[in-house]
Structures are given as C-alpha cells and as structure tokens.
C-alpha cells in the first residue's frame, strides 16, 4: 500500500492511516479483507493525529486488535443499515482512539464499548457480572456508571433494550413470538408476553396486529393525486 510518498506492506493486525485528501493506492496478489474506518480528523487528539501522520503504517496493540475484531464481527452479524451501525460505531470509535494513543480507556468509554456490545447482541445471557467483566469494571462501579450516565440500572436498561428490539421486529418482521423470545434473551414465550403486557398493556400478537394495521406514513412521492372535479 502507498500513502502519499510512503509505502508499506499491510497484514493482519496492522494499521494504515490516510490523511484527508492524501492520495493512496493498494494492491494484493491474493484475496484479502480490510476494515476501513472513515473518520473526522477532529475526532483524533492532536498527539495521536501527529503520531499517525508521522508513522502511517504501524502494528495494532493486542487491545486495539481485539476492538477491531469485535467491530468486524458485529458488522458481519448485525443489520448493516447506517441507522443501525452508526450508534455502535459512535460508541466504539472513541474507545479505539484512546487505545491507539496508548491510554487506558476511561470508565465512560468502557461503558460506551459495553453498550455497543450489548446492543449488537441483546439476546446473550448478560448479567451485571458479565457486563462488568466485558467492560473491565467492578460490578459496583458498573452500577454507579449506569446511574450517573443513563439514570437507570444495567438490568433495567437491558430489559428496555430487548423490548425495543422486539417491538421493532413485531412492527416490521414476520418471526414467530417464540422465535423472538429466544432471539432476544427471554426464557420462553410466556416471559416475553408478560414483559410486553407490562410495557405496552397488550400481548405481542395484539401489538403486532396494531402495528400492521397502522397506516404507513406517506412520503412526498407517495401522496395520491387530488381527485379531479367532474366537468
């Protein structure tokens, strides 16, 4: 790969930094994949931007490698629409930048990385202990951060996230109620039904019917022509 006037060989676990508008080319004699992060240079600290500009080819640290592998996996397993991926990337990128700068991630960034991970896989068997372990925090510190940043608890936040995902699927998909319960971490269909009744006042099937019967909002191109008046 060439970046400006400098060239380098990029392999697994290595990074190439390309400044805005700087000419760059790459070629390969075998199949390969790259994870490309298109970012605003202002998101980088002056020190990190200077370092990457001085050494555009460098090896990722083990911690940075894990972050890149995680996001590549999430991108492969998650709905790739921008509105789905953008919140995940916005929480993940600052964590990567701090890791590249060699700084231990701050507690708030650890929380942001955790939220992105849970949002990408809400059906996993998340507990306060497993969330804390994923974020590299103690359980009490995790509860403190959730209260400070989100004004809720890990369990309540996870429950609301799962219900949000279920409601989205009920409004747009055709998966069975049992399948949705399994996919989003409920022990069985009855548990999902109880959660839906408590949150919305109706069971999943009734919620789906209401959403399916609701008129879709019209876009300007969908608006019907006004009826012509009889001559």
Written account of the structure:
The chain is built from ten helices and five strands. It has three domains: about 1-60, no CATH class; about 60-150, no CATH class; about 155-215, Orthogonal Bundle (Arc Repressor Mutant, subunit A). The strands form two sheets. Strands 2-1-4 form a three-stranded antiparallel beta sheet, with no helix packed on it. A two-stranded antiparallel ribbon has the order 3-5. With about 230 residues, the protein is mostly helical.
How many separate domains?
Answer: 3
Helix coverage percent:
40-55%
The overall average pLDDT, rounded, is: 82
User: Can you write the helix and strand succession as a string?
Assistant: EEEEHEHHHHHHHHH
Please report the distance between the alpha carbons of the first and last residues: 71 Å
Q: Counting H and I runs of at least 4 residues, what is the number of helices? A: 10
Strand content: 5-15%
| Strands, count | 5
Features:
231 residues, disordered C terminus, 3-stranded antiparallel β-sheet, two-stranded antiparallel ribbon, Arc Repressor Mutant, subunit A, mainly alpha, 55% helix, 3 domains, single chain, 10 helices, 5 strands
């Amino acid at each position: 790969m060439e970046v400006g006037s400098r060239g380098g060989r990029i392999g697994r676990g290595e990074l190439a930094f390309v400044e805005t508008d700087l000419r760059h080319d790459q070629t390969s004699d075998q199949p390969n994949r790259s994870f490309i992060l298109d970012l605003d240079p202002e998101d980088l600290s002056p020190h990190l931007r200077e370092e990457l500009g001085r050494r555009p080819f460098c090896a990722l640290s083990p911690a940075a490698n894990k972050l890149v592998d995680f996001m590549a996996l999430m991108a492969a397993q998650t709905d790739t629409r921008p509105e789905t991926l953008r919140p995940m990337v916005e929480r993940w990128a600052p964590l990567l930048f701090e890791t590249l700068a060699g700084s231990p991630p701050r507690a708030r960034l650890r929380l942001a990385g955790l939220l992105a991970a849970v949002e990408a896989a809400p059906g996993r068997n998340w507990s306060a202990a497993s969330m804390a372990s994923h974020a590299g925090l103690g359980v009490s510190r995790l509860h403190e951060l959730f209260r400070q940043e989100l004004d809720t608890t890990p369990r309540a936040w996870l429950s609301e996230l799962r219900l949000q995902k279920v409601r989205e699927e009920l409004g747009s998909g055709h998966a069975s109620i049992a399948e949705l319960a399994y996919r989003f971490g409920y022990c069985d269909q009855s548990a999902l039904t109880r959660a839906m009744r408590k949150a919305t006042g109706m069971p999943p099937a009734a919620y789906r019917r209401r959403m399916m019967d609701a008129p879709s909002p019209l876009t300007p191109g969908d608006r019907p022509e006004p009826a012509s008046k009889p001559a």
